[in-house]
Specification:
- This protein is mainly alpha-helical.
- It has nine helices and four strands, in the order αααββααβααβαα.
- The longest helix is centred in the middle third of the chain and has 24 residues.
């Protein structure tokens, strides 16, 4: 989310003006531009380590990179490449966690990113797994409401509150064609970190 806000603040002045004129969110316009670009962004690849890498490399010195640019690329390529990078980051974290015995059986999304159908689909395609979208995507607010309901005696515990108050609205299935494309993108994404970082830990992972 902070990366998209960085892009909005620094490069999306025209889109901000258009969004104000239309009375919509600027991210709807950015989504529309990104949706016109094919999976893989015609070679544009981003490492999203603008703030270092906390997982799986625990490298605060890592920095981001935008690679593969040509004169044929435009804003839509950069926006979609940011989406793809965050999805690749999620996949790398999950794969690393699985090596320590963490078995993630279901993925449920929440927060601002849940408002972007494109971002959700990219995550499903990169992960090769279904993404569940709850009816209430503001997870922190819902969790607070569940806790309050238990404290008020409406439900006996959080499990009961969850069964009553959490409802999955829809499930986003991965596209087999895009999943195959994203395997190559993911391989390049992983390799780029090692090319940009030369510490011992990065060479081991």
């Amino acid at each position: 989310g902070s990366l998209l806000d960085w892009y909005r603040r620094n490069f999306a002045g025209a889109e901000e003006s258009e969004a104000k004129r239309l009375g919509i969110s600027v991210f709807e316009i950015l989504d529309a531009k990104a949706s016109q670009v094919d999976a893989g962004c015609e070679g544009v690849l981003i490492r999203e380590d603008w703030q270092g890498n906390r997982s799986p490399f625990k490298n605060p010195s890592a920095r981001g990179a935008i690679t593969g640019l040509s004169l044929s690329h435009g804003p839509g390529h950069l926006i979609r490449a940011l989406y793809e990078a965050t999805a690749c980051g999620t996949r790398q974290i999950l794969e690393d966690a699985s090596g320590y015995g963490l078995d993630v059986r279901r993925i449920i999304v929440g927060g601002g990113g849940a408002r972007s159908a494109l971002w959700l689909q990219i995550h499903a395609d990169v992960l090769g797994r279904p993404i569940s979208l709850p009816a209430e995507t503001e997870s922190c607010a819902l969790g607070s409401a569940m806790t309050a309901a238990v404290a008020a005696g409406i439900y006996p515990d959080l499990s009961a509150a969850g069964r009553a108050m959490v409802r999955i609205d829809r499930v986003i299935e991965p596209s087999p064609e895009h999943t195959q494309t994203y395997q190559g993108v993911y391989d390049r994404y992983r390799d780029l970190y090692h090319r940009l970082n030369y510490d011992e830990e990065s060479r081991r992972l």
